[in-house]
Amino acid sequence: MSDVLLSLVMPNDLARQVEDLLLSRPDLVRGFTSGAANGHGAVVQLVEPGELVSGHSPRVQIQTAGPEASMRAVLALIKQELPRANVFFWLLPVIEMGRL
Question: Cys bridge to 39: 48, 57, 72, 88, which one at CB 3.0-4.6 A?
């Protein structure tokens, strides 16, 4: 099975729970990268006054790569453990990965 890149985007207050969940499953996720992102568009609810002024909502993006079956298992795990989570995701094929 080929490798894929799993990207997850979520509200800041949810990121720690998702990170802890990923760290609890080294059999599925060897490691991941996280960073700040901004959510834009009609599907992003702007709630805080600062969000209304700026026109975007702060988010955290987490990316990890691995076998497609493992990344799909991660999605199922998040859905099971955090059923009401507001996490947007996408999977992309990885042409090559490694360490230099």
Answer: 57
Structure tokens at 25: 């499953």
Determine the residue type at 22: L
Query: Which helix (H) or strand (E) segment is 2 a member of?
Result: none
Residue range 53-98, pLDDT digits in tens: 455 577 899 999 999 999 999 999 999 999 988 899 999 999 999 9
Tell me which DSSP letter residue 25 carries. Answer: -
CA torsion angle 60 66 71 77 (round to 10): -80
First and final C-alpha spacing in the chain: 23
We find that the CATH architecture of domain 3-93 is: 2-Layer Sandwich (3.30)
Domain boundaries, given as residue ranges, for the chain: 3-93
User: Which residues neighbour 97 within 8 Å (Cβ) at sequence distance 6 or greater?
Assistant: 3, 65
At residue 86, φ and ψ (nearest 5 deg) are -100, 75
